[in-house]
Design goal:
heterodimer, A: alpha/beta, 6-stranded mixed sheet, B: CBS-domain, Phosphatase 2c, domain 1, 5-stranded antiparallel sheet
Chain lengths: ~130, ~425
């Protein structure tokens, strides 16, 4: 599958899914008016990529500072996909959760993700103040 | 020609306004020439009509080209060109492929044509014909830009007026809650600030003989769709409280959940794992609300709280610490919330002068500050700890000022609804 790169806009994040190297990154903010429309094709590609894998390890870098409720739901679906994959291939998904040391909202959300998707290896990474 | 009085009078709906303006609205009756006429005659014509930007060349009533003043003058200004061209046919300097449009063409279609035709058409204008393709006159790029801007402004005006009125309706829906609140609370504030005049944040208060029911609601979306949702939720909540559900906020949330899911058809078929990412699911809505439901019993001074992703902050006068009643993590009505989901009631004994606060995520998730990160619950709690002894109205203005300062030049991300009261 070809890699997927979508540059960030003011209300959508940068998507940098290097399927060829199984390094998937997302950063920025997510509050598009129609989040489903934006994310659906991305998640479909992820879904079919995961189907083509058999135990390859995946590193996911999540570095968002804001997302609205629609995007939150979409992220849950996305982590569910990764969790399913990791369930079939234990220890295959590493989720790097980047958050500012003072950003309790993003960390809280990450802890929820950690609690809900137990097959994913969760790694909180604190970004220290510049 | 642009008829300003007609423009000003217009009070039609959006689509009607658009239909009123066609290419013909921009028509200027201009002198034309025939291919038999010479460049010398064109020179004279241009000299005599200083405002002519272009001259159409007409043969048997049909336009065959357009002579641009600039292009013509430049051409003739070259050495010996007067001698060479003066007596020749004016088609020498004619653009043989000018934009020609039917007078009935819509302004929108015309705009795309003009932009597609490039800069020359914006500068030199275009030819307007009747239904038979016979020459009527010229239109200019400048007039087109004027009409397009006017239409845009007019559309904005209509949308703004309509949203302003929607805001009147939404606020009048809040009136009875406002009245109830002022009758059951002495020291309190309610700050309702939709991002786009109307919004998905909402509050609800109803007085009973043994206490009052209070809800802070954040429906999916903001703006007009968000406001639609609040009206649906408010009417459901009104209905639910007619029965004795007020003592059981968690139960009331469960009833709301069922009602919303049924009303909006947000039911996943049991046991069937649907493909979430297939376009076929596009039509289904996935809307609901995050909320805190509180029943305050004023006879035994207790509060029963049930939260759907919306915490309750409180400060006991004795301890000065900010405490939280943590909500359940499922929203109400959404597709991924099961039909039979159970929220939990948490009880809190209210002591005298205890301060309680509810806020939607618009406040704590707002991006701002030097780091461009969320305002956060910690910052909010720390602020409350500093100011909770002040009168509630003063707290409101301090909290909001802190919030605006924090937001700085960042865009507002969401609606904000915030309330606080001292028991």
């Amino acid at each position: 599958m070809t890699d997927l790169y979508i540059p960030a806009t003011s209300d959508t994040p940068e998507i940098n899914f290097k399927f060829s190297r199984n390094t998937l990154s997302m950063s920025g903010e997510a509050y598009p008016e129609n989040g489903v429309e934006f994310f659906r094709p991305i998640l479909r590609q992820l879904q079919s990529h995961l189907k083509s894998l058999s135990g390859d390890t995946i590193e996911f870098n999540f570095q968002l500072t804001y997302f609205n409720s629609v995007s939150t739901k979409i992220f849950y679906s996305m982590f569910e996909l990764l969790n399913e994959y990791a369930k079939n291939h234990p220890n295959s998904v590493l989720l790097n959760w980047h958050h500012d040391e003072e950003d309790d909202m993003i960390l809280d959300f990450g802890l929820d993700i950690q609690e809900d998707f137990t097959w994913i290896d969760f790694n909180a990474i604190t970004l220290a103040s510049a | 020609m642009l008829d300003q009085s007609l423009l000003n009078k217009s009070r039609a709906g959006l689509s009607e306004i658009e239909a009123e303006y066609i290419a013909g609205s921009l028509l200027k009756i201009c002198p034309s020439v025939s291919p038999g006429q010479t460049n010398h005659e064109v020179s004279k014509l241009l000299e005599g009509h200083a405002d002519l930007i272009s001259i159409a060349v007409i043969e048997d009533n049909k336009p065959i080209g357009l002579i641009s003043r600039n292009f013509f003058m430049e051409g003739m200004a070259k050495p010996f060109h007067h001698d060479l061209f003066d007596r020749k046919s004016c088609i020498a300097f004619m653009d043989k492929e000018p934009l020609v449009v039917d007078q009935n063409m819509s302004i929108q279609a015309l705009s795309f044509k003009v932009l597609g035709a490039g800069r020359k058409t914006l500068n030199d204008g275009f030819i307007i014909t009747d239904e038979n393709g016979d020459y009527l006159g010229l239109g200019s790029g400048e007039d087109l830009v004027k009409v397009v801007s006017f239409l845009q402004a007019e559309k904005n005006r209509l949308v703004t007026e309509s949203i302003n009125y929607a805001s009147v309706i939404q606020q009048s829906f809040l009136r009875s809650s406002k009245e109830s609140m002022s009758s059951v609370l002495q020291d309190y504030f309610m700050h309702w600030e939709p991002r786009d005049k109307v919004g998905g944040d909402y509050y609800f208060c109803k007085k009973f003989e043994d206490g009052f029911f209070l809800a802070l609601i954040d429906c999916t979306g903001h703006g007009v769709p968000g406001a639609f949702m609040t009206l649906i939720m408010a009417s459901f909540l009104d209905h639910i409280l007619l029965e004795d559900n007020r003592y059981d906020p968690a139960g009331a949330l469960a009833i709301m959940n069922k009602k919303v899911k049924l009303a909006l058809g947000q039911i996943t078929e049991t046991g069937v794992e649907t493909d979430k990412f297939s376009p076929a699911q596009g039509g289904q809505s996935d809307d609901g609300m995050d909320t805190a439901f509180c029943w305050v019993n004023t006879q035994n001074n207790t509060l029963v709280y049930a939260g759907a992703k919306t915490p309750l902050f409180y400060i006991d006068n004795a301890s000065t610490d900010v405490n939280l009643l943590e909500p359940d993590r499922k929203g109400v009505g959404y597709v991924d919330t099961p039909m039979d989901y159970q929220w939990t009631n948490q009880q809190l004994s209210l002591s005298k002068a205890m301060c309680l606060y509810l806020t939607t995520d618009g406040l704590i998730d707002q991006i701002g500050g030097l780091k461009k990160i969320a305002f956060g619950k910690k910052r909010f709690s720390a602020l409350l700890k500093d100011i909770y002894l002040k009168p509630m109205l003063e707290q409101e203005s301090i909290i909001m000022q802190t919030y605006y300062d924090y937001q700085g030049k960042q865009r507002r991300r969401d609606d904000v609804c915030l309330m606080g009261f001292r028991f």
